[in-house]
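Please review the protein record below. Tell me whether the encoded fold seems credible here:
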Amino acid sequence: MKIREKKTSKLLVLLMTAVMLLAGVTGGLRGESIKVKAAYVTPRLLVTGADIDGGSVKAGEEFDMVLHLKNESTTTKLMNISLKLSSEDNQIITTSGSDSIYIDSIDMDTEYDITVSLKTRGNLEQKTYTLNVSYTYEDKNRYTYEDTAAVSVPVIQEPKLSASEKRVSKSTITVDGKTSFSFKLNNLGKDKVYNVSVDFTGDNIMDISTYVGTIDVGMSNSVDMSVTGESVGEGKVVAVISYEDAEGNVSSFEEEFSLNVTAPVNEESIKENDGKVSTGLLIGGGVFLLIAIIIIVGAAKKKKEKQYE
């Protein structure tokens, strides 16, 4: 009995295998597609890479990506190639509105490039995101294969640095005199700003610079600089604020202040003028006193003359 059971089991396995083979052949003859995991069989279509102009993408902007495909098979052309693009929470979408791409065929052992227009969400944080590529294709026998690939998309945020609370301690100084300019620098963007520096320039001051450093997202740093008058004149002092994003790209903007620089006061001339004023007052006072005496004496003399008449 045991021997017969073993023989019966072998017959059943052979019968089932024959049925499966026959179904595959008849399905192929009827033109029905059979899906096969591309990871386990050949021929293979690969996404070998992707290129982005500039290497990174600004959040909220459109960009073109070139996908590099290759038919690795040396024996069959690949046909009816369909690619579907997707990303988590629609972080990256196609500008056409359709996330599917169709390619008629790729010859055996051939590379193929396709350009896709994409757009990132404007509120994305600055980091690298993943664009998923799912695709299906057929060989010359109309067997269908499927595979997936992932493409990296570096997204950067436009740095946003602004100045507020501008103050000037004194709007008028003398040559070699000093005044202070102060303001706050505010990071309004979604990523840090790096190597922040401020250069103060003007026609009537000695140029001076200060290094601020890194300002975190949502944070502010104060700038308070003392400048020295160099020449007489009334004009503007310009503060040039420069900074870098995470990619090392430099941006800058300017803030202006009004400043009047006057000639210095000479202490010796003040003393001389004070002396001249004092002498003049003494002389003038003496003359006035002499005139008053003459008038008084004359009046007294006239009074006596009238008494003897």
Remarks:
- Confidence is low (pLDDT under 50) at residues 1-10, 16-33.
- Helices lie at 2-29, 267-308.
- Residues 267-308 form the longest helix (42 residues).
- The radius of gyration is 46 Å.
